[in-house]
């Protein structure tokens, strides 16, 4: 639990701002038996990141460790530290962070994005854009983990249980920071709801992993046959498959001698529950991003500020680190960035985007991440290309 009293999960950002205004750019607070340091200066962020050493410490998500303990599930990389974390991180980052590997996923991500565009086109108006983007991100994570489509963007809603489980899982994960951790000692109703959703997700994972394993076994049996088959194929095709095909990530992990099957299971789960760490040093990125000493006119939408040579300076490169920094930074960064660029390009190319005429101002709440306070409806109007650089509406 981080805070209690009048500060709810939604108001964490407001609490941080109050702390920053009252005590300045660095402050310490004791909460129960734990000490927290709050930082609001990017130069201090830099000192902390650079002093982390080879094994940066991250506190595990308590509700996840409780769940894993009770259900005999492996804890993923997110919850490990020291050499144990490093043993998992090294082989995984070799397979995930190299640009050559990530670009091999481009054609598949393009396909998933194409399905997203088709889905949006069939609806015209999306009533909860956040939810749809979560399905899109998870569909891409499924590709990375299992080389397989999970069907989260299908219109027939066959995978609605999985979607619901993910929704509940992430919501309760955010909320658990702000609750007394009674779930550690008793199966509270909150915990039971979390466990039910987590079981749905973990069971599906087990099924996918079993399928990968049996595919590996049968392809090992057919190895000779497939080599002969390959020899019959033309060189060009062979080259295409060996250079452009996305790697079979789960298989590569399972085949890596440095990793046990439990570790592999943990890594694959992490891919879905990514970025959900909490640390005792709390860095107020949100407040820094609104600080006029760091960003000129922070509340103005002015993307040009990021261009090289812009007059509007951003004071420190450590002021905005959405993927973290250093040896413990986000493993999915390149994958996520590629996904965002492809999605953005395809959507902008296809649609003119607007808010409904009666839309209210969008307010944010801060849970594990920043979310819109209420579901946001977005209207999409299809563009029709009439010449290379002009579009009209259908
Ligand atoms: C816009 C999307 C994303 C953002 C902003 C993001 C951000 C982050 C952040 C801030 C961390 C923690 C860094 C730290 O503790 O210092 C993290 C960790 C992690 N992320 Fe992401 N992430 C994103 C997407 C992804 C995706 C798509 C994947 C998987 C494909 C992923 C996999 C991971 C993993 C495995 C870790 C744990 C790394 C470790 O403990 O060594 N992330 N992410």
UniProtKB/TrEMBL annotation:
<comment type="similarity">
    <text>Belongs to the cytochrome P450 family.</text>
</comment>
<dbReference type="InterPro" id="IPR002401">
    <property type="entry name" value="Cyt_P450_E_grp-I"/>
</dbReference>
<keyword id="KW-0479">Metal-binding</keyword>
<keyword id="KW-0408">Iron</keyword>
<dbReference type="InterPro" id="IPR017972">
    <property type="entry name" value="Cyt_P450_CS"/>
</dbReference>
<dbReference type="GO" id="GO:0020037">
    <property type="term" value="F:heme binding"/>
</dbReference>
<dbReference type="InterPro" id="IPR050479">
    <property type="entry name" value="CYP11_CYP27_families"/>
</dbReference>
<keyword id="KW-0560">Oxidoreductase</keyword>
<dbReference type="GO" id="GO:0016705">
    <property type="term" value="F:oxidoreductase activity, acting on paired donors, with incorporation or reduction of molecular oxygen"/>
</dbReference>
<keyword id="KW-0349">Heme</keyword>
<dbReference type="InterPro" id="IPR036396">
    <property type="entry name" value="Cyt_P450_sf"/>
</dbReference>
<keyword id="KW-0503">Monooxygenase</keyword>
<protein>
    <recommendedName>
        <fullName>Cytochrome P450</fullName>
    </recommendedName>
</protein>
<dbReference type="Pfam" id="PF00067">
    <property type="entry name" value="p450"/>
</dbReference>
<dbReference type="GO" id="GO:0005506">
    <property type="term" value="F:iron ion binding"/>
</dbReference>
<dbReference type="InterPro" id="IPR001128">
    <property type="entry name" value="Cyt_P450"/>
</dbReference>
<feature type="binding site" description="axial binding residue">
    <location>
        <position position="330"/>
    </location>
    <ligand>
        <name>heme</name>
    </ligand>
</feature>
<dbReference type="GO" id="GO:0004497">
    <property type="term" value="F:monooxygenase activity"/>
</dbReference>
């Amino acid at each position: 639990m981080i805070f209690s009293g009048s500060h709810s999960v939604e108001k964490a950002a407001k609490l941080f701002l109050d702390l920053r205004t009252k005590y300045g750019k660095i402050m310490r607070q004791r909460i129960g038996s734990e000490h927290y340091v709050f930082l609001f200066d990017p130069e201090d962020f830099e000192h902390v990141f650079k002093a982390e050493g080879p094994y940066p410490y991250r506190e595990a998500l308590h509700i996840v460790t409780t769940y894993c303990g009770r259900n005999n599930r492996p804890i993923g990389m997110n919850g490990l530290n020291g050499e144990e974390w490093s043993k998992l991180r090294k082989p995984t980052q070799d397979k995930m962070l190299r640009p050559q590997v990530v670009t091999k996923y481009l054609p598949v991500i393009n396909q998933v994005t194409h399905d997203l565009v088709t889905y949006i086109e069939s609806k015209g108006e999306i009533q909860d854009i956040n939810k749809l983007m979560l399905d899109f991100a998870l569909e891409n994570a499924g590709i990375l983990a299992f080389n397989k489509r999970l069907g989260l963007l299908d219109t027939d809603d066959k995978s609605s249980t999985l979607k619901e489980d993910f929704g509940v899982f992430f919501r309760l994960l955010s909320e658990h920071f702000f609750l007394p951790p009674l779930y550690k000692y008793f199966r509270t109703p909150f915990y039971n709801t979390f466990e039910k959703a987590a079981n749905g997700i973990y069971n599906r994972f087990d099924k996918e992993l079993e399928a990968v394993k049996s595919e590996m076994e049968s392809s090992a049996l057919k190895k000779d046959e497939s080599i002969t088959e390959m020899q019959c194929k033309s060189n060009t095709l062979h080259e295409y498959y060996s250079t452009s095909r996305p790697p079979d990530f789960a298989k590569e992990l399972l085949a890596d001698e440095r990793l046990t099957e439990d570790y592999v299971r943990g890594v694959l789960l992490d891919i879905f529950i990514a970025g959900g760490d909490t640390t005792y040093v709390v860095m107020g990125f949100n407040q820094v991003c609104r600080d006029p000493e760091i960003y000129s006119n922070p509340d103005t939408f002015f993307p040009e500020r990021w261009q090289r040579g812009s007059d509007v300076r951003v004071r420190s490169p450590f002021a905005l680190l959405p993927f973290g920094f250093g040896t413990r930074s986000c493993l999915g960064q390149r994958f996520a960035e590629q996904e965002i660029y492809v999605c953005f390009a395809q959507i902008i190319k296809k649609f003119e985007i607007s808010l409904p005429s009666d839309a209210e101002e969008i307010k944010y709440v801060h849970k594990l991440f920043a979310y819109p306070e209420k579901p946001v409806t977005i209207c999409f109007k299809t563009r029709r290309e009439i010449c290379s650089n002009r579009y009209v509406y259908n």
